[in-house]
Fold this protein.
Amino acid sequence: MLQFAWSTSSQYGADWLNFYVDGVLFNRLSGYSSWRRQYMYLGPGVHKIRWEYERDYCCYSGYNRGYLDEVSFTPLNNVPTLGEALDQPNWSFGNSDWSAHLGEKIVGDSSASSRAIGHNQSSRLETFVEGLAVVSFQWKVSSEEGGDFLQFYINGELKDEISGSTNWAPRTYIVYGGNNLLEWVYTKDGSVSRYLDAGFVDGLEYRPPVESGDLAAALDNDDLHWSSNGNNSWFNQNFDVFSDGDAARSGVIGHGEQSTLRTAVVGPGALSFVWKTSSEAGADFLRFSVNGDEYRAISGATAWEPIVLILDEGPQMLTWRYTKDSGGNDGLDAGFVDLVQWLPEDEGNGSIPPLFLTGELPAATAGINYQFAVRAEDVEGDSFIFSLLNAPSGMTIQPGTGLLTWSNPLVGDHSLTIQVRDEVGASNARTFTLLVASDPATLPPDWTRDGGFFFEVDLTAPTAGILVN
């Protein structure tokens, strides 16, 4: 692997420091360019490496020269493939012109980097994924802010772009059914180069949903009998959830179709659930009804929202129905329901127990004081208190506020059961799992650069590869 640092102090766009490999121009600098680190993986054989300062026919600016420093060459026996650099060694990356990069990384020993390009050019990384899934990755860019961008596309649609000198940042997207094209494109405008002049991607992950017919698990309630019908059934999935790692999602349907979820209870009692939609606003709705009477309908890109209501005495048919109009799609084109609680009136005291509004506990970090306020609601307006039925040693909860505290969390998954009891003795208990992780890792510092000289050199490389910034 060849690596070096270079910079220029010259008339921008006219006087250039050029970098050639075997007579082919790979990259060039001009203007007041800061020190930049360049890397290159060389194929087998002898290679002619040349740096050349080139002036136009008039004028000059700055010191009118190019600078080169910290040139080194290290033979490599195992150059990472693009798949290995992205932590997906078995994937195909088609016509991508990116390659592995050892200098910038956040997962493993390397990342993927765009190739060296000139002004008004682009460098592309692409792959295909099949079916409904969550795609996540880390990315960063080292470029001219507002001029040279790293962009991410799904099926040709721009999802996000970054420019400037950024740190590693995570991104997560959902892709739908069928064959989906993922593209990362580093693109340059017609002027100025800054920093490493490249985009980087690492830690690529693809997580298809875990789908099953276990609606009771998805809805956190196996005391009720669940059924689904319509043009396609609801199902259990794990990538858009509120509680316990799964939720129910409406079936995939077409225009003018519907997907229905049902259960029945016998009142009086209190019902609560959380729901959301990812759909065409004002057109494709998730509707909730009791005994055929619509209670509420939502559409568009909504957040998880709790619904709490009292049901009267007698049989009550509960229906969640996702419906589509005659045209248009948006988002995931679905409705979601999670954490369904049904608490019948206590026959002993005639009171309805309080309902939990908290679905999951946020994760904790080992050794760092943990606090989180558990939420509950009493539909009859009775006062209530919290208590711990079982919990890790040292954990406490404030009876009046539900503030959960653990001053010295230990690494691991910890089970705890919280009870909420109203003033007349009606109670409800729920078991939670608290994940405690170790201290987060810190990222390595950036390199520093200085010095200056010129030369041409022949290098012999035993392994193959391409240029990366």
About this structure: The chain has four domains: 2-76+446-468, 82-207, 215-344, 355-437.
